[in-house]
Amino acid sequence: MTRVIHTGDTHIGYQQYNSPERRRDFLAAFRSVVEDAVDDDVDAVIHAGDLFHDRRPGLVDLQGTVDILRTLADADIPFLAVVGNHESKRDAQWLDLFADLGLATRLGAEPVVIDDTAFYGLDFVPRSRRDDLTYDFDALPVEAAHASLVSHGLFEPFAHADWDTETVLAESTVDFDAVLLGDNHKPDTADVLDTWVTYCGSTERASASERADRGYNLVDFADDGSVGISRRGLPSTREFVFVDVDLAADEGIDRVQERVRQHDLADAVVIVTIDGEGRPIAPAAIEELAIDRGALVARVNDRRDLPDEDEDVSVSFANPDDAVRERIREMGLSDAALEIDETVRSGDLADSNVRDSVERRVRDLLEDDDAAFEPAPERRPADEDVTTVADHLADGAESAPESTDDAPAAGAASDSADAVDDAGDGGGAAGTDDPDETADTDTASLGDFA
């Protein structure tokens, strides 16, 4: 029998709510998964993509990830993974670096056999490029009794899907017993063409819509040919306290404050959601109360149809960088233009060096990749390089991949979709008031670990 941990969507480096503590939480959650793997002596850890929150993780996050992967390597537990949409680069991937260091294996068309199970990989592929995909995988080795595909994307029959699982299974040259997926932060399992298809969910709450406990899957490939999938929680993740208030017409801030005081908020992320009628409420007063009672972070989401014309209006503004990113994605620029835009707007490059940096990059592209200058096809929001539903804030704000009966996400679909609840927190921004976190804001290149 082969037993593996199936995890994914760890989003290491995500400075949620502009909080350095939350950034550390995402790394700590991944460490907890690896510690469980060592304690249980599993045969492998399978990561289904989005190890990092973006393609330019901070140096401290990279160092922490290397340290965690070394823990696995020291225990002789293989780490097998695919590339997700958040971390995907146009050239070499971070997984390739970890493979060069002997700490990971990037899955692909060639099988990697663990005990009697062969694992194949399919990195995230933008929707606009899937028509050209051929699901050709190398033949199943004779010593393998099982085959499993690991991939990242929004697959049917789950909510918000844009990838046909039946097509993948029917056109694949290998008969898979299981498909282990990442991208949707809500864990779920379904039977598709007699094949188990499962999402492991995320290891930390990347959005206020993710109310359920976080965790990962344990997958058993049994000697009798069956596949067993079980769920294990991560109790050490930071507590989120959800305070839902339905105001009557004559109620206001006093009622909301009363409800907040009913909870233990120590070191928690507090999400206050206001529905109903009632008087207008200034979110800042509620957030200040929660912080005074020990909360790490507090956010207020007022979902009422307010204000009326006669009432005072409290206006907040979204991150302007997010608005720029959204507009750029709508323009359907070529890959070369997107790279130039990224260079020009990078906060890590001095203004005096921008021109030379752009000229060098254009020369490199002309020499190595003429296709980068080809006009991009007509695109829809789901057809971008990061192609999941509502992915207009993928580089900078929280994702809302799941909805629950308690709090349906507005248009939420995957880890690439961003919750309106969390807009304006700065997402993965580097800013911090903690001097000890300065190194966290540094970005690194593959050359830093060469």
Main features:
disordered C terminus; 15 strands; 9 helices; globular; Purple Acid Phosphatase, chain A, domain 2; alpha/beta; 450 residues; 3 domains; 6-stranded mixed β-sheet; 24% helix
Distance between the termini: 37 Å
Biggest sheet, open or closed, and with what strands and sense?
Answer: 6 strands, mixed
CATH architecture descriptor of the largest domain: 4-Layer Sandwich
Strand residue content: 15-25%
**For the largest beta sheet, what order do the strands appear in spatially?**
4-3-2-1-11-12
Sketch the topology as an H/E string, one letter per element.
Answer: EHEHEHEEEEHEEEEEEHEHEHHH
For this structure, what is the CATH homologous superfamily of the largest domain? Metallo-dependent phosphatases
Q: How many DSSP-defined strands?
A: 15
Overall pLDDT: 83
Fold-level CATH name of the largest domain: Purple Acid Phosphatase, chain A, domain 2
Which word captures the global form?
globular
State the share of residues found in helices, binned by percent.
Answer: 10-25%
Structural domain count: 3
So how many helices?
Answer: 9
**Mind telling me the C-alpha Rg?**
23 Å
Reading off the top of the CATH hierarchy, the class of the largest domain is best stated as Alpha Beta
Spans of 5+ residues with little confidence (pLDDT < 50)?
Answer: 379-443, 445-450
Helix/strand class: alpha/beta
Question: What can you tell me about this protein's structure?
Answer:
It is a single chain. The two termini are 37 Å apart. The model is unreliable at 379-443 and 445-450 (pLDDT under 50). A hairpin with a 2-residue loop joins strand 5 (112-114) and strand 6. The chain has 450 residues and is of the alpha/beta class. It folds into three domains: 2-233, Metallo-dependent phosphatases (Purple Acid Phosphatase, chain A, domain 2), CATH 3.60.21.10; 240-302; 321-372, no CATH class. It is globular and about 70 Å long. Helix content is 24%, strand content 18%. The strands form three sheets. A six-stranded mixed β-sheet has the order 4-3-2-1-11-12. Strands 5-6-7-8-10-9 form a six-stranded mixed β-sheet, with helices on one face. It has helices spanning 20-40, 59-74, 94-100, 165-171, 253-261, 283-292, 320-330, 335-345, 351-368, and strands at 2-7, 44-47, 79-81, 105-106, 112-114, 117-122, 146-152, 178-182, 188-192, 195-199, 215-221, 227-233, 240-247, 269-276, 297-302. The protein has nine helices and 15 strands.
